[in-house]
């Protein structure tokens, strides 16, 4: 296997020059860079990227923290960040850490020793705890905003308000929002925005929750929703809605389609936000990629951290909202 010394000999330069030509080509004359790269290609030389990063006082590894792996929403965020990391010749290390309380700072510190910075996705702790963690290593938040920290957020609150307005326009007057995980910043944002939207369009809004964003949690809510007077339901996440919808279909209280009451039922409850119905369409890969870009490009100690809010469209395709009874 060829070494850097072999490349330097073939290119007729010093080992130091060969190293700079491969790792920091902007510091070397273009003709020399071309000669070193040609020599490396001839010898099938593969640079040790880890060693290059360490030589600059960095690991070349970034951390990505998610609060759980049970929520499918986080998978495309990881995927988008991974693609960007590879394009930047960086390694991404994923760990589950919700940052809910101070006891978790010790684990955060242990992880921090092996990375250059973190993407922290939907941390559940108070702002002060998140800020304290971010003081240890560069951090970009995903789907959470904290004063003084950079962040990238999907504007799902605005999208949920748009869904509610669509339900109201279709004649629904008693809407139930099933909230997401306890201490979820996004859930708090959605709840507040939905209350504002409901007041503006003159419909009734009730809120159940918090609940984990899982199918089982939704299935466990069938009795409570069936006994409510709701004619439409907005679940925090698709998995929640699917569990609920399956149970309601079994009771003859809902159906897949345009919201027309099931045969023989005295009413039908419209569940939106699940596949086959109008729902928010978050591009998780874009969210992860944008956050990774911000982490690797943000200047250290910037006075004004960047806050980005990405528009979230509504997927209306395939059907309308249907009329309420």
Textual characterization of the structure:
With 325 residues, the protein is an alpha/beta fold. The chain has helices at 4-11, 15-23, 30-42, 49-55, 74-87, 105-112, 127-134, 156-169, 185-201, 215-219, 222-226, 238-250, 284-297, and strands spanning 61-66, 91-96, 118-121, 139-142, 150-154, 174-178, 204-208, 232-235, 270-271, 279-280, 307-310, 314-315. The strands form three sheets. A six-stranded parallel β-sheet has the order 2-1-3-4-5-11, with helices on one face. Strands 7-6-8-9 form a four-stranded parallel β-sheet. A two-stranded antiparallel ribbon has the order 10-12. 40% of the residues are buried.
Q: Which strand-content bin applies to the residues? A: 15-25%
What do the pLDDT scores average to? Answer: 85
3D shape: elongated
Fraction in helix: 40-55%
Distance between the termini: 74 Å
Low-confidence stretches: 50-57, 259-266
Q: How is the main sheet built? A: 6 strands, parallel
Order of helices and strands: HHHHEHEHEHEEHEHEHHEHEEHEE
Radius of gyration (Å): 25 Å
Strand order of the biggest β-sheet: 2-1-3-4-5-11
Structural class given helices, strands, pairing?
Answer: alpha/beta
Number of helices: 13
Strands, count: 12
């Amino acid at each position: 296997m060829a070494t850097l010394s072999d490349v330097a000999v073939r290119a007729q330069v010093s080992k130091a020059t060969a190293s700079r030509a491969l790792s920091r080509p902007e510091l070397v004359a273009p003709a020399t860079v071309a000669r070193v790269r040609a020599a490396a290609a001839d010898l099938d030389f593969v640079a040790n990227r880890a060693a290059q990063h360490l030589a600059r006082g960095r690991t070349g590894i970034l951390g990505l923290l998610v609060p759980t792996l049970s929520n499918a929403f986080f998978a495309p965020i990881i995927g988008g960040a991974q693609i960007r990391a590879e394009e930047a010749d960086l390694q991404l290390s994923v760990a589950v850490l919700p940052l809910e309380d101070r006891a978790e700072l010790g684990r955060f510190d242990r992880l921090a020793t092996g990375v250059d910075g973190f993407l922290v996705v939907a941390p559940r702790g108070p702002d002060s705890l998140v800020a304290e963690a971010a003081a240890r290593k560069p951090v970009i938040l995903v789907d959470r905003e904290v004063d003084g920290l950079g962040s990238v957020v999907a504007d799902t609150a605005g999208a949920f308000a748009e869904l509610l307005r669509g339900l109201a326009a279709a004649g629904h007057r008693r809407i139930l929002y099933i909230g997401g995980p306890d201490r979820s910043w996004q859930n708090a944002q959605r709840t507040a925005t939905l209350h504002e939207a409901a007041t503006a369009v003159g419909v009734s809004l009730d809120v159940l929750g918090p609940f984990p964003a899982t199918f089982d949690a939704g299935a466990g809510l069938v009795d409570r929703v069936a006994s409510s007077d709701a004619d439409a339901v907005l679940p925090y996440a698709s998995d929640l809605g699917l569990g609920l919808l399956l149970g309601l279909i079994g009771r003859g209280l809902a159906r897949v389609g345009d919201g027309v009451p099931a045969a023989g039922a005295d009413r039908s409850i419209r569940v939106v936000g699940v596949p086959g119905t109008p729902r928010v369409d978050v591009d998780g890969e874009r969210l992860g990629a944008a956050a990774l870009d911000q982490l690797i490009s943000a200047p250290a100690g910037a006075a004004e951290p960047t806050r980005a809010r990405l528009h979230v469209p509504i997927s209306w395709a395939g059907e309308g909202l249907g009329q309420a009874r």
